[in-house]
Amino acid sequence: MSVTKGSVIFYGLDGLDKKVNDIIEVLDLKKQSFEVKLIIFEAVNNAYIHGNSSDSSKPIYVDWELKDNLLIVIVKDCGQGFENINLHKKIDEENILDESGRGLYIISCYTDELILDGSSIIMRKSLLCDI
């Protein structure tokens, strides 16, 4: 049983692309790297805008663990947490091109399980055998 763990702290969105690419490199993803990048980008962006009110002085914590082929990523911000969130099963056609309001939906499409726990987003994703 192989286990890879790591963590990173973001302050704002500067360097997000490089740090996420570093995570992908540590995880040694060959396939599904786009999907994993996407869910991390969306979760960190959500944490920054909604949880931390776009305040770059507030930290965003990202922890990950890959055990066998199960990836767990936890993103935690400094906000008050989720309240009465209704995850949409699909995006309304009139909102399809909106620049916001789709992050959690996108994450739910690319994960096996999405848990909103206070000010944390917990994402579980089974990876292909040849990761």
UniProtKB/TrEMBL annotation:
| One MF term in the entry's GO annotations | protein serine/threonine kinase activity
Concerning Pfam families, the annotation shows:
HATPase_c_2 (PF13581)
Q: Which CDD domains match?
A: HATPase_RsbW-like (cd16936)
InterPro entries xrefs: HATPase_C_sf, HATPase_dom
- Alphabetical keyword list: Kinase, Serine/threonine-protein kinase, Transferase
Where the record annotates domain Histidine kinase/HSP90-like ATPase, the positions are 32-124
The protein in question is named: Serine/threonine protein kinase
Q: Which organism is it from?
A: Clostridium beijerinckii
